[in-house]
Design brief:
This protein is of the alpha+beta class and 165 residues long. The chain has helices spanning 37-48, 59-72, 77-85, 91-97, 109-116, 130-141, and strands at 10-15, 24-29, 54-56, 87-89. A hairpin with an 8-residue loop joins β1 and β2. The chain is globular. 8% of the residues are buried.
Length: 165
């Protein structure tokens, strides 16, 4: 990895098997300090399967994260390439065909989602953006938070270093 590379540590997917059926929610959150990339991509590939559209919001970003994973874990590159070919982007649909005053001129998901689906909002969320999510995840895997976002009780670790001659 290089400085400023993005480490994928969480995904959330809703899988709809049949038209009209209730989507099944699947998710992954790396919960320890080991490299999350392998379990992340393995679980994601399993969750997305081999068929059907993969609807995303901002395909360019999602496709680039998948490309990064394919470079880091070449054993998944074939499955990742197939997933990338199935990506279907909602962003251009919204940008070119939907207007709502609550967008305030922005087509970002943070503006669009609560305007179109008022019960789904980022407002009041403790972790509401990528940078905050990364910092919260780092705190969790280093022992500062549990998976529910609650602070763990403070721990004191003492290390005694000895010298030998």
């Amino acid at each position: 990895m290089r400085p400023y590379d993005q480490i994928p540590f969480q995904w959330s997917v809703h899988v709809q098997q049949q038209p009209g059926s209730v989507p099944e929610h699947l998710e992954f959150l790396a919960s320890d300090s080991t490299d999350p990339r392998y379990p992340f991509v393995s679980g994601l590939c399993d969750a997305l399967g081999d068929h059907g559209s993969v609807v995303v919001y901002h395909q360019q970003f999602e496709a680039q994260r998948l490309s990064d994973l394919a470079l880091w874990l070449p054993e998944f590159s074939g499955r990742i390439n197939k997933i990338q070919r199935r990506l279907w982007d909602l962003l251009p649909v919204v940008r070119n065909h939907v207007y709502h005053p609550a967008f305030c001129g922005s087509c970002s998901l943070k503006s669009v989602l609560p305007a179109l689906v008022p019960e789904m909002t980022y407002e009041g969320m403790e972790v509401a953006d990528g940078q905050s999510a990364g910092l919260a995840w780092e705190s969790m895997v280093r022992g500062g938070l549990d998976q529910g976002g609650e602070r763990r009780s403070e721990r004191r670790c003492w290390t005694i270093v000895g010298r030998t001659r």
